[in-house]
Amino acid sequence: MNTSSASKNRPTNSVVVTYLERYSKHSYQGFLRVYHNEIVASTPFSNDWRYLDEFWVDQFLKTAELQLDNEIFVFLKEKKRKRTAIEEKENGQPQTKKKPFEVISLSTVVNNTLPNLTYLNLRNKSNSCTESIELRFPDEIINWAGFEQKVLAWQPEVDKEYQKPTFSKRRTVTCEKDICTASDINIYETLTPLDRSILFLDGRALKSIVGQPDFIIVNSNMVLLMVWECKTKWVLKVLPNEDIITLYEQEKEIKEGPYVCSNNASIFGSINQVYGYMCANNLKYGVLSTYDQTWFFKREVVKVEGEDHGRLYVSNTITSASTNPTLLKSVAYMIDLASNNHYAPFLKKPMMTADDTNEDDKDDEPIPEKKMTTNLSIRGICFRKVQML
Fold first, then answer.
1. pLDDT value for 33
2. 253 and 146, same structural domain?
3. Of the residues 137, 366, 376, 381, which has the fewest C-beta atoms closer than 10 A?
4. Do you find a cis peptide bond into 325, omega within 30 degrees of 0?
5. Does residue 386 form part of some domain?
6. What is the rounded CA–CA span in Å between residue 286 and residue 314?
7. How far apart are CA 371 and CA 114, in angstroms?
């Protein structure tokens, strides 16, 4: 190891140091494979993967120079030189430094509306699911009155810097993964400040998370602020003139009635899934989104006849094309609320029974306009529940 006094005063990257100390055979590609999650969580924000690669190559070599014997470091540096030469030859021209990106304020960022998505109807089934490890439902679900007005009146911070967004305008949706990707590029990256004080991570990034939401929002100390669940419009079927709370109550009534229906209880299951994540992780706020349509949740616990009572507020639909307010400003407002107070008490009940789960919700395939069938699985038909002896 290189332990000169001069090197001790120079900065090192802790992730790279851990890799170099743990493994005897060192390579940049090996480092990327082993520490992928840590790299993603601690990388400065950028839409340009070439910039990210250059950043980590630089971090890797600088740390290796301080930690390794000079002979090994020279070998690694030579490998980097050869790799760059090969890339330049393949590209037909030398790599040039990327122009500095334009820095803007959050108040400018949130004025943007988002490009629409295109759904592809000819596709295979996906594995979208509305079941949560915490199968819960609220005692009471009501409209979050005045949400839009509060967002419009809210003034974003002026001291944080953001990269001017470049939106992905060509995204064809075939499954839930495409919704997650579009949200990641056009929403999460756009609202990640350059100081990385707010991060959007995969729902499995923190071991302490109960359940597996699609995404989580955390602060710079990795404190969980909010959960985010993505669905396709095939799973979350809400028409522009429909109210999601009314649809939820209708599906709940059918679930609790004497009949079982062939159509999916997609809204009932989706809202309960997000609510379950919020309850299990002591969270006050959550998001349910198809990207085109988004609903913002606020959870409260109140006392009713001496017992804890779960109340869920659900906003009106905010679309990707909304302007009063925009979707981006609505998300930024929610992050600000959660940053100031993200806690709501854990709730043990009410919980759904096994009979209330809906295996059919694993299918987010669009329903064809015309379909000939000889069985009784016609959409919307209800059958009386049979008590098994």
1. 66
2. yes
3. 376
4. yes
5. no
6. 10
7. 34
Mean pLDDT by 10 residues, the chain (389 residues): 42 70 69 67 55 71 71 64 61 54 92 92 54 75 98 91 88 87 93 92 90 94 96 93 97 77 74 95 98 98 91 98 98 98 86 46 43 34 49
Name residues whose C-beta falls within 8 Å of residue 297's C-beta, 6 or more positions apart in sequence. Answer: 271, 274, 275, 278, 285, 286, 287, 288, 312, 313, 314, 315
Residue 214 sits at φ, ψ, to 5 deg, of: -65, -45
Q: How many domains does the chain have?
A: 2
The pLDDT, as a whole number, for residue 172 is 84
Q: pLDDT at position 24, please? A: 64
Question: Are residues 110 and 87 located together in one domain of the fold?
Answer: no
Structure confidence at residue 360 (pLDDT): 41
**Residue in the block written with tokens 């529940």:** 385
**235, 178 in Cβ contact below 8 A?**
no
Residues 257 and 203 in one domain: yes
- In the block, tokens 């290796």 appear at 64
Q: How many CB atoms lie within 10 A of CB 361?
A: 20
Query: How far is residue 56's CA from residue 39's CA, in Å, rounded to a whole number?
Result: 8
Euclidean distance between CA atoms 141 and 248, whole angstroms:
9
**124 CB-near residues (< 8 Å, 6+ apart):** 174, 365
CB 268 within 8 A of CB 141: no
